Protein: Macro domain-containing protein
Amino acid sequence: RSLCHENLEDWVGEAIVTSTNRRLEGSMRRNWWGFAGKRSADVALHERAGPQLLAECHKLRAELPEAQVMVTRGGDLGARYVIHTVIPSHPGGRDPRPMPAPQAGDVATADEAEALLRQAFANALGACRDLKVSSVCLPAMGCGCRGYPVEVAAEIGVQALKEAKMA
Structure:
């Protein structure tokens, strides 16, 4: 049990948890969001893992509902498994300018977003238990492109670990 700060796609172990969008292709924010070309951690994982990760995702599902999980192989990553989950964007990080229609549906109210984040953490940790992994990289989901306040997301993540008896 340890906490660390490192590059997600460089992590080596059994499972990496990543939050993605419903279409299982990560988020690439444009100028309209204030992230000007920055990519989500999921986009970085897909780039490192190679095209076979996205192909496997789309072979299993076209879309993944919020807070559900899907497990794939790690591809060219240093992890055996990638556990994908979907969380909505938090309104606390929302750019006040109009959002393109495809992304507008990915924003929930603060209460809904936090409940779905809680459920996503629980489901991801449940998948880890089912896979019997001994190591997992569980990032600060929601704190980047999805705009969750860091304190809120951290509290939800730590509580999920405690409830799963993993902290």
Notes: Residues 8-163 form a domain with the Leucine Aminopeptidase, subunit E; domain 1 fold (CATH 3.40.220.10).
